[in-house]
Write a structure and sequence with these properties.
Elements (H helix, E strand, L loop, with lengths): L2 H11 L4 H32 L1 H37 L3 H35 L5 H6 L1 H13 L1 H17 L3 H23 L9 H25 L15 H32 L4 H37 L3 H15 L1
Helix pairs in contact: 2-3, 2-8, 2-11, 3-4, 3-6, 3-7, 3-10, 3-11, 4-6, 4-7, 6-9, 7-9, 8-9, 11-12
Length: about 325
């Protein structure tokens, strides 16, 4: 591990806390804004294709988010555990739990992706869709979801990389990788959606392929950072094989977070189910509105992730008062 994460750890566990907390948080906020950019770029290009294409994305996203919430809980658990070991100065222990998180979430992503792929049809069939919506939008939403679920390992890979780096206090490297991913997505979207140059016109499915491809590139870059550089936790490849003890820790911390995120996702799914009873134009407008709202809500998630790291490192360093201070400062910044 380089001196940068060590310096970040020292600033989080010693001295004034506000400045290092902000320094930790702003790249995470930027990552969330770039996530919004992902969604908006897809929406803009699909909007040029048709309103039905935007409606398909609107129907697919809540169901995809519901499945991703499961993996999100476990990656958050990994970040917290890495932060605690980093704060305690246990770099080897941090690397060990990072490897366990990476291996376990990798398995979860394959299982969840397979279940999501097989359940796409039944899930969409549960929506009480308007007849026109069922005919014109639901099949396109199914195309998007199946590609998305097939690419789940690539999608989860970036999430776990970002979480592990965050746990050590390095949030800038994931930001650089995220920028690369967004650039690739922006570049691929029109080629795959409209069939530019030698590419076939794939419409909604093309948008999904562009997203999965760009996330896959981000995952490869993240794995290179973890295993090919001295940034982030030092992971021994043998630590990738899940072991009962560490996995139990990850599950105990991750399940409550996964349930919380799944509850939010279920609420969005319920709202989407009601909107699906209206014609395609209403479904498309609903999805566009959600993406604009996310410009406000997602950055707050970045700040909360920074709070997780600050609290975890200070608890690991046996500084509970600073952990409490981090919560108060983070809450103040959110307000």
């Amino acid at each position: 591990m380089t001196s940068a994460p060590h310096a970040e750890r020292s600033s989080l566990t010693r001295g004034p806390l506000l400045r290092p907390l902000v320094r930790l948080a702003w790249p995470l906020v930027a990552i969330q804004l770039l996530q919004v950019a992902y969604n908006l770029v897809d929406t803009i290009w699909l909007g040029r294709l048709s309103a039905d294409a935007v409606g398909a994305l609107s129907l697919a996203f809540p169901l995809v988010f519901l499945v991703i919430s499961i993996g999100g809980g476990f990656t958050a658990a990994g970040a917290i555990l890495v932060a605690q070991h980093t704060g305690a100065g246990g770099d080897r222990a941090a690397g060990r739990i990072a490897g366990q998180t990476l291996g376990f979430v990798g398995i979860v992503s394959v299982v969840v992706g397979a279940i999501g792929f097989l359940a796409t049809g039944p899930l969409l069939a549960l929506l009480p869709a308007d007849p026109v919506t069922a005919e014109r939008i639901v099949p396109r939403a199914a195309e998007y979801m199946r590609v998305f679920f097939l690419g789940s390992p690539a999608l989860f890979g970036f999430f776990v990389f970002s979480a592990l780096m965050r746990g050590t206090g390095d949030t800038r490297t994931p930001l650089v990788v995220m920028i690369l991913s967004v650039v690739v997505n922006v570049a691929l979207d029109p080629f795959l959606i409209f069939g530019w140059w030698v590419f076939p016109a794939l419409g909604v499915e093309g948008a999904a392929i562009a997203t999965v491809t760009s996330r896959g590139i981000a995952t490869v870059a993240g794995l290179y950072v973890l295993f090919g550089t001295d940034l982030g936790p030092t992971i021994d490849p043998r630590d990738l094989i899940p072991k009962p003890g560490p996995v139990r820790q990850i599950v105990e911390l991750g399940v409550p977070t996964a349930l919380e995120q799944s509850g939010t996702a279920l609420a969005i799914v319920a709202a989407t189910a009601m909107v699906a009873t209206f014609p395609p134009a209403v479904v498309a407008a609903y999805g566009l509105g959600n993406r604009l709202i996310s410009v406000v809500t997602l950055p707050a998630m970045g700040l909360s992730q920074a709070m997780d790291t600050a609290v975890g490192q200070n608890l690991g360093a046996a500084e509970p008062e600073r952990a409490t201070q981090a919560v108060k400062l983070g809450t103040g910044l959110l307000v």
